[in-house]
Prior knowledge:
It is a single chain. By secondary structure, the protein is mainly α. The chain has 3 domains: about 70 residues; about 100 residues; about 70 residues. It contains 12 helices and no strands. Helix 8 packs parallel to helix 9 and helix 10 crosses helix 12. It is globular and about 55 Å long. The N terminus is likely disordered.
Amino acid sequence: MHRVPSCAVGSITPWTWLLLIAPWQVGRVSGRLSATETRGPSCSAERCTTETGEFMNYPRAARHSFLSVLFMLLTAVLATPGAGADEPKATPVPAAGFDWRNSVREFAKEHFRNPAWGYSHSARIHALALELAAEDGVPLDADVIFAAAYLHDVAAFPPWADPKTDHADEAARIVESMLADTGFPMRKVESVRGAIRTHMFDREPVGPEALYLHDADALDWLGSIGAARILALVDPNGGSPDGPAAVAMLEGNLASVPPRVLSPAGRARVEARRAELRQFLERLRQETDDLRNL
């Protein structure tokens, strides 16, 4: 005996069943009508009454049977996946299309909250590093500079901060584990580590990404943005740092940072930012009785 594969039965759609069954049902109705009509009025009264009743009932019963089958089939059609073909279908986002940068950016935005070295600082120096390198005609690895810029200060925040270790060294140590599950091309992680380790102005960068991250971070301590960053740290309740202490930090940056900007494009920007910060500090001293009223 030939067995019909189950997949063959399952592949017949409800519409196919409807096309197969409908002619048969219509045939039943037509056949019953024809058989009744051939009996005609020659029957006896009793038989005629009986057969007339059958004549009246056959079409109704047949129609009821047919409509019941039709209703069930239409219900099945509407319940069949794909019946609402006009409705938009959700599609999964392929893992290969996931952008690791979004993950790193959102992580920084959520966790790096500080007016001097928070998320906005990371975004600024990423953009500035790209600008400086472009002005010098130096190509940068986009993956390396992005990861290094957004994660270089991670160890300045709990729970990643280690009071016994400089934040640059600690960030360089843990950055591999932070990038491991993001989709970042891990073959480049050593370049990220090197750039993070030397991002402070008093360190010696090696490699283009390290150099331009270093200079962008240094320039962000100067000019108006440098003043805004440090003054934002002042404790409004009179704690540390207070106003004069913040000014001392700014004056320290004014003296120490400019000589440590190393790239040609970075050095070209130093003087304008240094002059801007110097003028601000001079005016601040004039307007506060040499900081006594600050």
